[in-house]
Amino acid sequence: MPIQEDVRIAPSILGADFLRLGDELAAISNADFIHYDVMDGHFVPNLSFGLDILSQVASATDVPVDAHLMIANPDTDAVRYAKAGASMVTFHMEATNHAHRVLYAIKDAGAQAGVVLNPATPVIALDAIIEHVDMVLLMSVNPGYGGQKFIDTTCRKLRQLSALCFERGVNPLIEVDGGITADNVEEVVAAGANVIVAGSAVFRNPDHAAAVEELRALGRKGMARGL
Ligand code: DX5
Ligand code: ZN
Asked: Which of 32, 37, 66, 77 is catalytic?
């Protein structure tokens, strides 16, 4: 298993009350990342928010912003999210033929860079890129909407990814996104995840900070099991 320092919790503000976004951000100041879901209506059948709101979010919080780009053109647009204030930018492997180029453009702009796999994309898609990423995000739902059901085969993929990282001697962050709740977070961390995205599980709880702490505590139990 790769060395895992701690479980990081990344609330997805797709689940937030947008009319009170400043308050919602303040309420999750105990999070490790703000997960910022960019949907372009092409790569996924939904629209969310883009560069301008990202700049405002990044300047309204001390928590680093993790921009998850569900966009059809990461080749041209990923670097713009790094420049707009994201600390981490991830793009989908399904959306580019030039993954190394996109990764290095993001890093040159001063952000960390990662790649995302949809549920049906196998881990072997990372074969040529794994040494170059700061983070891998495995989707545990088909992207496009919050509040979907966790796809169970994700845990097998997490174990395959952990094995690939061990074999190559690399230790990227391993993020999982979609349908994570207090009921399955322990299992996904035990399988190798160390960055947990949670939209509904954080924002449907009126005490968002308490929801973050609960997920972190349960995730730590999974980490103790997985080591
Ligand atoms: C799905 C997004 C997720 C989503 C997570 O397309 O990438 O980040 O908002 O929301 P929950 O935790 O509700 O599945
Ligand atoms: Zn996401």
From this structure: 37
Q: How far apart are CA 224 and CA 227, in angstroms?
A: 6
* 3-state SS, residue 227: coil
130 CA → ligand 1 middle, Å:
24
Nearest of 210, 215, 208, 214 to residue 24 by alpha carbon: 208
pLDDT in tens, the chain (227 residues): 444 489 999 999 999 999 999 999 999 999 999 999 999 999 999 999 999 999 999 999 999 999 999 999 999 999 999 999 999 999 999 999 999 999 999 999 999 999 999 999 999 999 999 999 999 999 999 999 999 999 999 999 999 999 999 999 999 999 999 999 999 999 999 999 999 999 999 999 999 999 999 999 999 999 998 76
Pocket test residue of 197, 203, 204, 212 for ligand 1, highest count of atoms within 8 A of CB: 197
CA distance 27 to 135: 26
Q: Match 């001390």 to its residue by tokens.
A: 62
Angstrom distances, CA of residue 108 to CA of 83, 125, 172, 176: 10, 24, 18, 25
Task: Please provide the size of the chain in residues.
Answer: 227
* Residue 40 phi, psi (nearest 5): -105, 5
